[in-house]
Amino acid sequence: MTSATVPEAFDAVAKGYDRLVGSNPGYHEHLRMSARRMGLANEGEGLRLLDLGCGTGASTAALLSVAPKAKIVAVDASAGMLAVARAKSWPSSVRFVEGRLTTKLEVAEPAKVRGQYDAVFAAYLVRNLPGRDAGLGAIHELLRPGAPLAVHDYSVADSIRARLIWTAVSWGIIIPAGSLVTGSAALYRYLWRSVLRFDGAEEFERRLGAAGFVDQRTQTMPGWQQGIVHTWLARRPRE
After folding, report:
1. Residue 165: alpha-carbon gap to chain centroid
2. Is the pLDDT confidence value at 195 over 90?
C-alpha cells in the first residue's frame, strides 16, 4: 500500500473504523486537546473552520466541541469514511465534502469550500499525503493571514523509546485488532510503517517553516502516547 492508495483502503474499513479507534484510550480526548490548543476564542462564533482529513468525523466532533458556534467544512478523500460521518447527527453548521489535497484542495463542488478559513485542523492527514510539502503549501493558501493550523499525528523519529513502543503496540494490538474488526490488516501494517518513516517533531517544524508558516511549535500528549502523538501548531503570517 502507498500513500496514493490510502483513501481507497479507508473505503474498505470505514464501517468498522469507529469501533476500532474507540478502543484506543485517549484517541478522542487527544483530538479535542489538539483542537483546544489552537486557542479559538468565543466558542468559534463567527469563524469558518476547515477540517482536512475528517474521516468518519472524529476530528470534526473535536473541533465542534471547542468551537460549537463556528461553521465547519469537513473534507476527506474517502467516500466510505464520509458516508459513515454523514450518517451521524450534526448541526446545520457542519458540512461534509469529498475532496483530495494535492497542490490545492480538489473537490467536485468548489463552491462548497471556496475562500479562506479562520483555522485549519489536519488530523492524521499530512503523513499520508503523496506530496507533503505541496500539501502544506496548499493549506497555507487556504488560511486567512494570521490564522492558525493544527496538525495532529504520530511521530516517533526522535526517540528510540517511542519507536519501540509504537512497534510493540502496532504488532501487539493495532494490527491484530484492525484485522479482526475490519477484515484486513493491510491498512494497519501501512500505518505502522508510515509512522516510522514520518518526520521527527523538529523536522516537521522545519517543513512547516519552508511552506511559509511561522510560530511553529510542538506539543505532545500525556500518558503512554507521550512522545508518540503530537500537535504541531503554526500560523500563516499576517500580511
Report:
1. 21
2. yes
**Which residues, 6+ apart, have CB-to-CB distance to 145 below 8 Å?**
236, 237, 238, 239
d(CA 73, CA 93): 8
Q: What are 11's three cell numbers?
A: 473505503
Beta strands 105-107 and 119-123, pairing class: unpaired
Q: Whole-angstrom Cα distance, residue 71 to residue 119?
A: 11
Name the CATH architecture for the domain at 3-235. 3-Layer(aba) Sandwich (3.40)
Cβ-contact 228, 162 below 8 angstroms: yes
3-state secondary structure of 141: helix
**pLDDT exceeds 90 at position 11:** no
pLDDT digits (tens, 9 = 90+) for 71-119: 999 999 999 999 999 999 999 999 999 999 999 999 988 888 989 999 9
**Count of CB atoms within 10 A of residue 127's CB?**
21
Whether 31 and 73 have beta carbons less than 8 Å apart is answered as no
Per-residue pLDDT at 15: 87
- In this prediction, residue 185 has a pLDDT band, given cuts at 50, 70 and 90, of confident
DSSP one-letter string for 18-42: HHHHHTSTTHHHHHHHHHHTT---G
Q: Which three cell numbers stand for residue 219?
A: 506539543
